[in-house]
Write a structure and sequence with these properties.
Shape: globular
Oligomer: single chain
Number of strands: 17
Number of helices: 25
Structural class: alpha+beta
Radius of gyration: 24 Å
Distance between the termini: 34 Å
Strand order of the largest sheet: 2-3-1-9-8-10
Length: about 600
Amino acid sequence: MCAIFGIVGEYELKEAKKALLLMSHRGPDFSSYIAGKNFFLGHNRLSIIDLNDEANQPIVYEDITVSFNGEIYNYKELQKLPFPFKTDSDTETIIAAFKIYGLDFVKYLRGMFAIALKKGETYYLFRDRFGKKPLFYYKDEKRFIFSSEIKAILPFVKKELNFDTLSCYLSFGASISSDTFYKNIKKLPAGHFLIYRDSKIEIKKYYDFLKEPSIFDEDEAVKKIEETILKSVRYRLIADVEIASLLSGGVDSSLVSAIASKKGKIKTFSIGYKDFPKYSELKYAKEVANHIKSEHFEIFMDKKAFLDILDESFYALEEPLGDPAAIPLTYLFKNVKAIGIKAILSGEGGDELFMGYRQYFEFLDIEKAKDLKYKNWLKNYFRSNFSLNKEWEWYKRVFEETPLFRTTGEVFTDLQKNIFLKRNIKDNDSLECIKNYLYSFGSLSLHPLIWYSYIDIKVHLGELFFTKLDRSSMINSVEARTPLIDQELVELSFKIDPNLKIKEQESKYLLKKVALKYLPKEIVYRKKKGFSYPFIEWLIESKEIDKIKKINEKTDIFKSEEVDFLLSKIKRGKFSRHGWLIYAFSVWMEKEFL
């Protein structure tokens, strides 16, 4: 796991090296660069595979230069290609595959990656299939810049707020590819590659995972899911350093940890909150740890630790992010690093692949209103009787026959945004934010659950959760691996009849069948508890939440009376998700523009 940074065009060597240094946390083990008259390519290395100096990057072979961030898990298979390998690193296999397969080489890589590749005077950027590893770029008339993090690009650009991204953020909690919160700084979408040649940018898509269902037998589905998860976890245990596992006590992280422990005793990590036992799931994590015989570590966060790490976490995130879990996750990884762990497994993806969120069942039920024969009266009634309740927005979409579900993580409705922002927001603005994904999906005549899973993997997971995981881990120089979002497993999931996934109205029905082979029944079938912790209580007690009002008085982005209304609701225990989004954005605005 590493950082890459490059400039094509005019640059000062001192400034380029300084920019690379801003990402030293992503690769503290070694830093190097190649500099030419109009080309700079730098790399910070976190050594995970092949710890020898010969594996340091950038790597040059003939007229090909490569620098990459990530892991290629099938690199051993790729080492069988006819190529004069000099190291045992996965980086060289990228060059070998490119030499043999050309631009199609990326289809042969199994892993997470952001790759910068130069051949002659043509430059290529590749981002992995699901957006696990970040890759940003910027272009003006003098140069083209690319980087693993935005902070390395900012010294070269004039900072301007992208207001369109703010609207999407209020809906989905993150900037949506290819936009960022900064005008003119873009992020390469997952499953895409970029070609830069003769001062021109061309972006192409190389991957999507949507499949027509072809598996309708429960036993076949369970067998294939288990086989694929076993293979995926085994791949992610490949390393020349110790691999640990995050363990929340939920099905996903528990299953990953249990399978990983079959190879040998592992370390597992959980987090709890002092003086707030209602938020704690430590007892479930400990039960799993005892079952799999892991060396278990319980990390506790209190209000002081929360407040102390806020600035570091926001610095790591770079942009506003609508998931308050980023703060304890940063704290957890800080403790993981202190114990000496450089690579860790995490359970993201099980909910999105195997229907683990209760919202899926709620939306499926609401979808039925589309079939009402006489719904025009209801349609007209909803248009004439506005409500700020999210349910009003949901039924309005159904009666207007626009896509109902727009990710599990949707927070502000379009009407709420229009009331809250001083800037006018059009109806169905949130749909505009995800129009590219809607276009790629093709047909909403497929089972609604296919769309739910698809858009959640693209946005809720790809733009929100993977950003949180990458920045929280890498600011602490720890690599996080997510075996449940594996190419083969994702594609298999979409081949399975979605009705099997919610059989008997049971969330994650099929995954739980697999988990029963590895975990106690009481863990597998315990009531799901969504992740939460006392962030609102701590923000209120510390008066941090009042920054929303103070900063808005300077930025004048939100209507002051609506800010007062939101704050009054937050202090009565309501609208905590809305509150976090506005708080995170306000703090970011203060740091970046005030």
